[in-house]
Amino acid sequence: MFPRKKNRHNRPASVIKNKTFEDFITNAKNAFPLELAKKVATQSFGESYNPFIVCGTGCTGKTYLLEIIATALAKKTKKILFQNAAKFCSENSIILQRPEFFWQHYNILILDDIHEIVQNSSWQQQLALYIDTCLHFTENCQMIFSCAGYTNALHIFEERLRSRLEQGLIVELTKPDMEIRLRYIQLLCKQNKIALSKEQRLFLAQRYTGFRLLYGIFSKIKAFNTIYKKLPTLQDIENIICSEGTTISQNYQNIIEKTAYVFNIHVEDIMHGKRHPNIVIARQVAMYICRSHLKFSYAELGKFFGDKDHSTVLYAVNKIKKLLVNNKNMHTIITNLEQQIF
């Protein structure tokens, strides 16, 4: 549940070091997925849970968990390929075009962000073929994937690939709650040897729900400590946050702007009461993301969106939740926006 590395497209197992299951900060909410991940990492290749699929919304630690699994598996074999799914499917080398050749050279295939191939039918067919070849024609192989969204997110794939994925084991990581965020901040303090007070740690945990933002803010706090040779006060931290434009209110504005851009409309259209269908759905999407990530109350969101009644916001959020269940296009829009913003 830590920030991703900048280069997410190709991470050979040989360079994934010093990451263990003990580093994955969690509590009872994610205990079961973590235990299953440990099982996959320690059992014989392909013994069960194949493919093993980790789902979850943004900032839940999917990529980090895959890297931990890869680290554990690398102790048993060097025949591991860990790549971004889109990059894997777009490779032109012969070994990647022919699954039977691939499995002669590798025991483990770990693909991050398989939702990124949903718009390419041929890539979906290619991945389905890899799964078939692994399960029916080879031994001692294991497939591990991550996919943005809830466990029902697999409906966005075509039938052939979806059926192969659903025959594996699918787990879902939930977003970090206050307890987890506080523990993560404590870990950052320990790693950077910066002793923030309980009040300061609570201040940060209350304002940020995503680890990427917390990691970025802590980098600024570390820089402050290095430059001024002292620990920041609470007021210093507030100034650092404001100077970087990452307060919750600014995150809210960022959500509005990104949503308007995706729907090709003006920010003012979302904020006011225009009833064009495209504007209405854009406004509902923005409300849903604000509610999901910034934890505003329905009443607060109503005020932000032009003094709307709280029931209007509640209706909008519930509508998007229902669309995410069976609307592939909406799932893609929400996933892409969350990745851009958080």
Describe this structure as you would to a colleague.
The chain has helices at 31-42, 62-73, 85-90, 94-97, 99-105, 121-137, 159-166, 178-192, 198-207, 211-228, 234-244, 248-262, 267-271, 277-294, 298-304, 310-326, 328-341, and strands at 52-56, 80-84, 108-112, 142-148, 169-172. The protein is of the alpha/beta class. It folds into 3 domains: 13-172, Rossmann fold (3-Layer(aba) Sandwich); 178-244, Helicase, Ruva Protein, domain 3 (Orthogonal Bundle), CATH 1.10.8; 248-341, Chromosomal Replication Initiator Protein Dnaa, Chain: A, CATH 1.10.1750. The protein is globular. Mean pLDDT is 84; it is low at 1-10. Strand 3, helix 6 and strand 4 (142-148) form a beta-alpha-beta unit. The chain has a 5-stranded parallel β-sheet.
Structural class: alpha/beta
Estimate the strand proportion.
5-15%
Global geometry: globular
Which topology of the largest domain does CATH recognise? Answer: Rossmann fold
- CATH class annotation of the largest domain: Alpha Beta
Helix coverage percent: 55-70%
Helices and strands, in N-to-C order? HEHEHHHEHEHEHHHHHHHHHH
How much is the average pLDDT?
A: 84
Helix tally equals 17
Q: What is the spatial order of strands in the main beta sheet?
A: 2-3-4-1-5
Number of strands: 5
CATH architecture of the largest domain: 3-Layer(aba) Sandwich
| Largest pleated sheet | 5 strands, parallel
Number of domains: 3
Distance between the termini: 13 Å
- Under CATH, the homologous superfamily of the largest domain reads P-loop containing nucleotide triphosphate hydrolases
In the predicted model, the low-confidence regions spanning at least 5 consecutive residues are 1-10
